Model the fold of this input.
Amino acid sequence: MKKQNQIDDLFRRELADHTVTPSPERRATLLRDAEGIQRKGSASAWWIAGTTLLILAGFGIAFFIHQISDSSNPPSAIQQSSNQVPQPPSNPVPQLPSNPVPQLPSNPVTQPPSNPATQPPSNPVTQPPSNPVTQPPSNPVTQLPSNPATQPPSNPVTQLPSNPATQPPSNPVTQPPSNPVTQPPSNPVTQPPSNPVTQPPSNPVTQPPSNPVTQLPSHQQPDIRYPSKKWNISIGANYTPEVMFNTLNGDKFANNMGLEGTFHVGRYSVRTGVGLSFTTGWNEMLVESNPYLGAYKALDSITFAWGDNYNLVPTYFTKTEAVFDTTLQYTYTDIKKRYTYLQVPLVLGYDFWENSWLSLGVRAGAVMSVLLNTKTSSMTFDPGKDRIVQINNITPDRIELNWQAMGGINAAFRLSQRFSIELEPEIRYYFNSVYESSVLTKKPWSVGVRAAVVVTF
Amino acid sequence: MIFSRKNTEAKRLDQASIGALYDKNAPWLLAVCLRYTGNRENAEDVLHDGFMKIIRGIEKFNEKQTGSIEAWMRRIMVNTALNYLRDHKKEKLFIELEPVLDSIQISPENNDVYGGWDLSKDQLMDLICELPAGYRTVFNLYVMEDYTHKEIGEFLGISENTSKTQLYKARNFLQKRLREFQTEYTHEKTESNR
Done:
């Protein structure tokens, strides 16, 4: 209990609520300097707003597209791609007029003798195209009998071989004219009417599919990217700028980069990899020192030697001694440090929508961070000639192991069958503070956008 | 309202809030700085530095853990003033008088220092500013901030006896100056009654 003293009471009573009006110039200076601090904060506020907007937009677009695709009950992806080709109009193949092939009158007089020599050779060239519609019925009159001895070889140029064994007996009367193109004599009687072939051109594009396509359930639909493969592996490199909140020194910016590998099974995926994270932070320190007052030459030793007049001549040896004030001096200083973390993620994913060039999905998982290195990047406190007694870390040190949960929306843009670019806005929540002894009750969290270049095999 | 009473942690300030905070608290904080620095210009420098620390640290301020915001701001300002004195002192703030103290007989304090007259607050402030830096620091910490000699010793890195000696010398100085004021006041009153 303090002793009562009238001087103390006087000054305490009169000056406890004493005020002195500061100058307006100082006020303006303070507000100007304070604005610089606020600008730092507003930059991160823009980061938050932009990233949040991006994530919400991604969610909205994905949800909207998913709703549309569900409501219209779209066909499978394969059917969808084939449906893109315009279907031909359903025109039946025009039928030839039912014009029966004129039959030869059964007139034994006009009927040519059944002489193999007079029969025109069956020439594949002259035969009408094998069309069930236009092909006349096989007319035994105009066909050569199947006689291996007389049947000419199947040769479009149906020259009869000069083979006495197979050559039909030369009949001076009925020998067929030696014509390279052994067209049969145009016999209007026997020749089928020349009707234009009205068969539609065989166009594989306009042909209707031969098999009706059956729609597969979505989870059984093959991967549009690699229809022939049910699974695939991709590797890539990523970069993720990240803004952290709920840290001691305000908001923090971190650069994350690394290599990753993803295993896709249908629409599901598992991603892991290894990466590095670089972040900086200001550490406040309290330096206790004894101020330097000066130095003096202290006598170290004396030696004596005989002089010329038999007297002792001393020689003084001195050393410089510094003098420090015993009063402790307290100095607060900020030191900038750079932290390097090793990050190992394990992220599960599900692609809920995709087409030929874009796929959207959700990602969620955990990330492990291990502190690898701490480096002081700014100039350390320079005590000058003062003697440092103690340095106290006001800002706690960083912990060595940290776990985070992450979630995000993944958008993959396919540049080719193998190469794609991924953008993934994400949010991370830290299960524990990044500091060893945190004075904050809240856990840090962060937002970022992962950009990756991926090669798929 | 700048700080939400529902939340225990203060919000980040915008420009308007900073201006309002400054207008409300700068006058009494400047008086605190003036008591420590002894002159107006240095006091405003200290006020500026201290206020910047307040603005930076206000988002971390937790009323439950730290106490009232006025007390928190006061502590920041006092620490800033003391750091300023240490950084800019041209002579030692304190002289260890322990070996000398035994030879000094401390006279009993004369409590009948003043009576019947009034000094304005500005005049009392001027008396404080006239004190040497070391006396002024200990006097402010003991009388105005209500620290004990042990706490002052730990805070300033001096012994308890040094703190007591400094306070004794400060009181003697102020006592002497107040007597001089009293003498002048009496003389002026006498002259005016003639």
